[in-house]
Amino acid sequence: MLDPKTNNFSQQTNSSVAPLSLMPETFPSHRMQITDDLNKLLEILPEKIRAKVEQHPKLESLVEVVMDLGRLPEARFPNEAVYLGDVPVSKEDLQYSIDRVGTFSGDNRAGIERTLHRISAIRNRTGEIVGLTCRVGRAILGTIEAIRDLVETGKSILLLGRPGVGKTTALREIARVLADEFHKRVVIIDTSNEIAGDGDIPHPAIGRARRMQVARPELQHQVMIEAVENHMPEVIVIDEIGTELEAMAARTIAERGVQLVGTAHGNRIENLIKNPTLSDLVGGIQAVTLGDEEARRRGSQKTVLERKAPPTFEIAIEMLERQRWVVHEDVANTVDDLLRGREPTLQVRTIDENGKVTITEEHPQLQTVGGLVSSAPTVVAPPRPSGWRASGRMTPVSPLEGERYSAKTDFEQMLDRSWYQPEKSSEKIRTPGPNGEDWPVYVYPYGVGRSQIEQVVEILNLPIVITKDMDNADVVLALRSHVKNHSKLRQIARARQIPIHGIKSNTIPQITRALRRILGMDDPNIPETTDLHLFASNGSDDEIEALEEARLAVEQIVIPTGQPVELLPRSPRIRKMQHELVEHYRLHSDSFGEEPNRRLRIYPA
């Protein structure tokens, strides 16, 4: 009922919960009390709008009041929305409310001191406020009785659900229970002052829990780490984890042994799996290439989706409705089941009007065998290759439409794609090499000059074809620095089972040795025949003469006698060619002297 003095709506319900197989045998009765400080929110509304709200018969269930410039004010309730009069909202009405609330933060939210109400602003392109959403904040004591046994475990809990379903209310009550009843050190990271109210003094609804405010929303991840390092919490409470930095900070906190309780954007676990920013909260998803034997054992493609790491949150709760929650007590198993095309068993907890908690388990579709219902769940999985197709002896064909998975949600289509990787028809022309190998070899260059590769292939007449399509490549030729710094290249090559050959630098000797190694021609014990045209730029007599000088010095003096040799002075362009030739012999050389007498000195190995 509505208290005429405080205008607070409070409801007390005594109830007991029947013994349940999934909960303690006797669950204590609870008292549900709702405190909303509604009068303080009504005080910021213009007089004509406030009078209309106070006269509404469903005042106690008010959700929010919306005021947009030039439009009729609107009051929203759980199942309906009504206009408050027939006079549009003016700038004076908006300014009246703005003057009576706190400062709007970087996320355009403000509050009323020592209340849980939230006022959100809509701005035009110049930054002027043209709309307000005045949302009622309520502290509902006893709202988490359905999951109290999970809170007691000390495991990290993630709450999921659509906006307005009560995630923040449950978060606030969990913080109070952990702080007051379990006497734990609880720190709330309150980005928008929505959990503990506006102002420096937190709302009594959080009990003994402490609150850390965040200056700007983008700094939430820093405050999360600061809370752990400075205040020794046993529990960290976070609302609206929405960025990759916040997800990483949450994992860091969980790895330090601190219990996490938080909310995230998304209705179901499937939403998080498909969200690359937040997928780490449930362990992260990666593409894994299976061996031939393992792929045949699973009856799947060689590339499948798997969980990358243990989940940050061990328990997930999907708040489908205010009194109907789906609980995943083992998030790791749930994610694994979803990625393998199996429908997980759902534990559904509901609370009726009398406060009675009921727990049921929703199994996947059951099979009917001989007129009897089998207890084994029927898991409809995407069709997978079998027979000759699984052994790789036949060309892949598209599955028949009638055999495909009937339900076509986005998530199931993603799983389909993980089983059926497109295999493009190859136009490669193969001829057997001297030892029976397939020639030519298709090389995909990454960070290596195509002109240098073409020059080596043309002069040495190598069975190499340069391709621009990585799907058709037999091997990747890349600079080692690129391979080291580009993890995406390694992931793609690993997924396609294409080997990567790295070279130290983009020079003719390095490319020559790499191509010979790819073809199996690079035997370090057999001296290589050096074609000087490989190292010449245009093949002029001066270039060939300088390269011949360097070759004779290496083969007749440096290698046989182990003595260093100095060559004749040359131009910088020709000296560079000589350096490359010396590197071809796996020797070291330096340039010294002043121009125009600068020359090469070759050192023994």
Automatic annotation (TrEMBL):
Ranges where the record places region Disordered: 1-22, 376-395
Record-annotated R3H domain positions: 541-605
Pfam families: PTPase, R3H, Spore_III_AA
UniProt-listed SMART domains: AAA, R3H
InterPro entries reported in the protein's UniProt record: AAA+_ATPase (IPR003593), P-loop_NTPase (IPR027417), PTPase_dom (IPR058670), R3H_AAA (IPR034081), R3H_dom (IPR001374), R3H_dom_sf (IPR036867), Spore_III_AA_AAA+_ATPase (IPR045735)
Compositional bias segments (type: Polar residues): 1-18
GO molecular function: ATP binding; DNA binding
SUPFAM superfamilies named among the record's database cross-references: P-loop containing nucleoside triphosphate hydrolases (SSF52540), R3H domain (SSF82708)
Protein name (Swiss-Prot/TrEMBL): Single-stranded DNA-binding protein
Keyword annotations from UniProtKB, A to Z: ATP-binding, DNA-binding, Nucleotide-binding
